[in-house]
Amino acid sequence: MTSLALGFVLIGVLVILVILGMQIAYALLGVAFVGIWLIRENLDLAFRMLELTAYSGISDYLFATIPLFVLMGLLVSVSNVGRDTFEVAEVLLKRMLCGLGVATVAANTIFAAVTGVSIASAAVFTRVAVPEMERHGYRAAFASGTVAGSSVLGMLIPPSLLLIIYGVLAEVSIGGMFIAGIIPGLMLAGGFVAILIGLTLVAPGFVFTDPEAAEMRRLETGIDMPVGEMIAKLVPIVLLVVLVLGGLYSGFFTPTEAGGIGAFGAFILALARRSLDRHKLWQVMKQTGVISVSILLLLVAASFYSRMLSIAGLPNAIAGLVTDSGFGPTGFIVFYAAIVLLMGMILDSTSILLIMVPIAAPIATGLGIDLSHFGIITVIAVEIGLLTPPFGISVFTVHNTLNDPNTSVEQIFLATLPFIAVMLVVLMLVTWLPATATVFLY
């Protein structure tokens, strides 16, 4: 068997192992180790490359970005900033059509700018938004679907852990990836708002348990929160967003420095709100360590896997096949996005990135595709998997957090279909209009 054929076989084995339930890090390490051993027929070389990768894979100063942004997101979650943001959005927007749905999207958009993790948004807003939407006559399944659908904004609006992981795997600027995510993230948020208003006009029975009563309640609603209280609730998160993203986009901070400043700002915010005692601080630090070590181990495994692919000559071979097939850059992107969408139905987001990016990024480079643009396409396609069965981790997070026997997971999946439609439209727009991702980069 040739090295190339063995490389394809090993990719198939990797996918099967992950589907069968093996942890992605161990699957990557095992497949890469066996691959290097078999391709070079040298066990000592496989061990030496593993040793070298374990050190060099995460030795760069840049990798401190990961624990710092994770820490910032966890501290913000502890501070109840998400609840306050939703309450202000609710007051300002509930007279709109589907006002509380729009408020959920708006709050998720702001919350995403300081957390970077969709699952955190899904858990927070399930507790905050769903009961309030039900109280105002929204169907429980629709409210849950709105939370699950809008939670994916956390993976695209910077700072995002998926953008950081992609930047590391593709060896592109993390700061550049954050900038590239701005317009597509806002396009998603705007599309979600438009689809919610459209559904309310076209299919009010899908949104409300009693559309007529809900409409009367909306028209009778007034602003019942003093301006001073609204400002007090919004100022902390706005200051944190301006501090982190403003310093990052202005070039004043590197991504790592922005993570450190953001974590410190979130710590001060948690102390000022008296929401952080010794027990909670210990829990936050422990969670930060667990999450960060897990991600860094995955990156080491992905780096080792990438070296195995290079030894097998797989990226160059696939690039040759793509070129000979006459696909061209756009054809390759469409084919690649379709594969990622299919993988999203059976694998989690990080696993897809770790498996696909080391293969696809060199091919994209060879075809002249901007890797920042390619990264945004990748993340949007991966995000759709957060909402599609049978995996749909955002849907299951909402369902488990809600813990309502009257709202089935199937109903929530159905309610997320409009959000998936919007994401597919945005994916196509970003694919055919690269400037949506690169306009602020060059």
Automatic annotation (TrEMBL):
<keyword id="KW-1003">Cell membrane</keyword>
<comment type="subunit">
    <text>The complex comprises the extracytoplasmic solute receptor protein and the two transmembrane proteins.</text>
</comment>
<feature type="transmembrane region" description="Helical">
    <location>
        <begin position="142"/>
        <end position="166"/>
    </location>
</feature>
<keyword id="KW-0812">Transmembrane</keyword>
<dbReference type="InterPro" id="IPR004681">
    <property type="entry name" value="TRAP_DctM"/>
</dbReference>
<feature type="transmembrane region" description="Helical">
    <location>
        <begin position="412"/>
        <end position="433"/>
    </location>
</feature>
<protein>
    <recommendedName>
        <fullName>TRAP transporter large permease protein</fullName>
    </recommendedName>
</protein>
<comment type="similarity">
    <text>Belongs to the TRAP transporter large permease family.</text>
</comment>
<feature type="domain" description="TRAP C4-dicarboxylate transport system permease DctM subunit">
    <location>
        <begin position="11"/>
        <end position="435"/>
    </location>
</feature>
<feature type="transmembrane region" description="Helical">
    <location>
        <begin position="6"/>
        <end position="39"/>
    </location>
</feature>
<keyword id="KW-1133">Transmembrane helix</keyword>
<feature type="transmembrane region" description="Helical">
    <location>
        <begin position="102"/>
        <end position="130"/>
    </location>
</feature>
<feature type="transmembrane region" description="Helical">
    <location>
        <begin position="258"/>
        <end position="276"/>
    </location>
</feature>
<feature type="transmembrane region" description="Helical">
    <location>
        <begin position="326"/>
        <end position="345"/>
    </location>
</feature>
<dbReference type="Pfam" id="PF06808">
    <property type="entry name" value="DctM"/>
</dbReference>
<feature type="transmembrane region" description="Helical">
    <location>
        <begin position="352"/>
        <end position="369"/>
    </location>
</feature>
<keyword id="KW-0472">Membrane</keyword>
<feature type="transmembrane region" description="Helical">
    <location>
        <begin position="230"/>
        <end position="252"/>
    </location>
</feature>
<comment type="function">
    <text>Part of the tripartite ATP-independent periplasmic (TRAP) transport system.</text>
</comment>
<dbReference type="GO" id="GO:0022857">
    <property type="term" value="F:transmembrane transporter activity"/>
</dbReference>
<feature type="transmembrane region" description="Helical">
    <location>
        <begin position="375"/>
        <end position="400"/>
    </location>
</feature>
<keyword id="KW-0813">Transport</keyword>
<feature type="transmembrane region" description="Helical">
    <location>
        <begin position="288"/>
        <end position="306"/>
    </location>
</feature>
<feature type="transmembrane region" description="Helical">
    <location>
        <begin position="60"/>
        <end position="82"/>
    </location>
</feature>
<feature type="transmembrane region" description="Helical">
    <location>
        <begin position="178"/>
        <end position="209"/>
    </location>
</feature>
<keyword id="KW-0997">Cell inner membrane</keyword>
<dbReference type="GO" id="GO:0005886">
    <property type="term" value="C:plasma membrane"/>
</dbReference>
<dbReference type="InterPro" id="IPR010656">
    <property type="entry name" value="DctM"/>
</dbReference>
